[in-house]
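Re: that chain you flagged

S.,

Sorry for the slow reply, it's been a week of failed gels. I finally had a moment to sit down with the sequence you sent. For the record, here it is as I used it:
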Amino acid sequence: MPARAKQLAAVDLGSNSFHMMIARVRSGQLEVIDRLKERVQMAAGFDDANNLTEEAMTRGLACLERFGQRLADLDSVDVRAVGTNTLRKAKNSSEFLDRAEAALGHPIDVISGHEEARIIYLGVAHSLADDTGRRLVIDIGGGSTEFIIGERFEPRRVQSVHVGCVSHTLRFFPEGKLRREAFREATTAARVEIETFEREFRRTGWVSAVGSSGTVTAIDELLRANGWSNDGITRAGLRQLREHLIDVGRLSKVSLPGLSPERKHVLPAGLAILQGAFKSLKIDRMSVSPGAMREGLLYDTIGGNTHEDVRVRAIESLLERYDVDRRHANCVESTALRCLDQVAAPWSLHNPEHRWMLSWACRLHEVGLSLSYSGYHKHGAYIVANSDMAGFSRGSQHQLAALIESHRRRFKPALLERLRDLSDGESGPRLAALLRLSVTLNRSRDPQPLPPFQITAAGQAIELRFGPDWLDKHPLTRADLTNEQAYLRAAGFELSFE
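Prediction finished late last night. Pasting the structure tokens below so you have them in one place:
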């Protein structure tokens, strides 16, 4: 009997709609078996303080409960769920996420705009012919628009701007009036955002332009259905669609072949954003990709370009950019992983993600030295928390930053709590303790490996055992460990050594 095909699910908590795609993997390829989509308009649910309203959250949670029920019916499925612009923007996103994860039954990562663009490009690239031509990809979402220049499966230039069809609708077409001046202002607003990277993108250049996701797909279908373009999206076709909408005058009166009711309310804003992109980037024609975010999430999991591989490259980029002392970082990493192997069982640190996080924190713990020695652990945390790091969710990136900040000096209660919140309970502080001990034991920066030692852990108690007389021959290390005892005690650990 042939082995059962692996099942994957991608859940996209977009600003306008929530989507879920379920697929089987056969011979490394995706076979879609189900798609679900619900319009929730989360981006339209902000109050004056940039908090999601209870009404907006209720719409989203009801949708996720239905998605969760579908997933629960599957025997075995790997789920990757991500939130985008609206959850990046909402001040109370953590409150919503706690309830959303309970409703869906799976963790949800909030990803950066840069990461969103990378995943979209991966989905587009896998949906088109595998040629060697450089392509420009534009994806208009509910709260943001992503611009990517890439070749084959690799993005080269990535930009995400805070312009989306829902936010633009609220700003320029709130009452459904389709005035020429409103279109002009909406198009100009989009061009102002694009202006910051316009020259860089045009200098890089591309062979073809591709649009993705619902807004672009809807416009392409409208142009074809009404005879305004038979060869993709063109400038002339966009202009004819805009003139038709202005002639009609009100959104409630618009009735066009090919226009779905769910896309109607965001059509004017999406059209204005797309026209702004065409004008700023001198695009004459755009084809449309059948794949985007959901496909990208799935291919990011199964493809040769795996999620872990992408993150490793992001770490390597920071090491190179900030000229980190790799030899010393490798020594710290080797020590930390030796410690982890010995305490993984009593401290429940078996998850591969624990090993990755500790390893990356060791490699990057001195990244802040490029700014100054004073407070370099804080500088390093800031760099990691605010850099564009492909493959990392916002939560995992902040967890890595918190580990780096915790590797020296006093353990502040707020940082300790953040380590708990960003990890599965006590694993965050425990990884930080292993990082701190590894940094302490390698403080001399001696390239020679440390002698064999034992580390044991029971609850919050940590014991280090070295060879006979080793600490007597290394009085500075003994002094450093004595200082570390006090630091770790403040975090609830009891360190002993002999």
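What I noticed first: The domain at 114-292 is CATH 3.30.420.150 (Nucleotidyltransferase; domain 5).

Talk soon,
D.
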